[in-house]
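Extended Data, panel c. Modelled sequence:
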Amino acid sequence: MKKRGILNKELNTLLASLGHTDTIVIADCGLPIPNEQARIDLSLVKGFPPFLSVLDAVMDELETEAVVLAEEIKDENPDLYERIKQRMDGVPVQFVPHEQFKAMTKQAKAVIRTGEATPYANIILRSGVSFS
């Protein structure tokens, strides 16, 4: 058994398969996910697991070179936006309209669905390269 880090087999497999510039999405429970899109559904009940817990676990294991957020998060969910900003630590953040964000998710290798039930709690993470 693993001693630490992510325990979910599918999530570990996804993260290990990512190459440079591949993208994944961490989504709230309301983001539409096309049927043909690969998904890892972690949602159990509304609010669990929370978005930030999943983001923290993934970012602990993924070299992230950039992220994308819906620009609406700034006004519609400012508390979450501030908490995301605190976690970025130099990672460039791009903002796009929510409709464009949803279109961009279709290019991701997978969508990780959380139980988060607050507006615009979605992020696209672009995999970087770690040579250190």
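The mean pLDDT is 97. This feature is highlighted in the accompanying rendering.
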